[in-house]
Amino acid sequence: MMVRMPLSAAEIERGERLGTMLRQARGARTMLDVALDAGVSPETLRKIESGRVATPAFPTIAAIAHALGLSLDTVWREISLPEPTRVPAPLNT
């Protein structure tokens, strides 16, 4: 049986920043629209945006970032800061 270690306070905080950033980047788009574009379930996106999934899988974040027009560099930079600085601008694709 595999036991998952509890998340650290820093991991929980980073997950909350990720959720806030994705929610802000989604803007007026519906959660369903973004989830379908990313190939994830709306429930997964909702849990990530709400911070309930603080450490989502890399492919999931990559797919959501792509659907929102965000680079992974931008996502990492934003969630690694002590305080979110701004809503990242989508990439021109």
UniProtKB/TrEMBL annotation:
Q: Specify the HTH cro/C1-type domain's residue ranges.
A: 30-75
Q: Which SUPFAM superfamilies match?
A: lambda repressor-like DNA-binding domains (SSF47413)
Q: Which PROSITE patterns match?
A: HTH_CROC1
CDD domains assigned to the protein according to its UniProt record, in alphabetical order: HTH_XRE
Q: Which domain of life is it from?
A: Bacteria
In terms of InterPro entries, this protein maps to:
Cro/C1-type_HTH (IPR001387), Lambda_DNA-bd_dom_sf (IPR010982)
**Pfam families linked to this entry:** HTH_3
The name this protein carries in UniProt is Transcriptional regulator with XRE-family HTH domain
At the highest ranks, the source species' classification is: Bacteria, Bacillati, Actinomycetota, Actinomycetes, Micrococcales
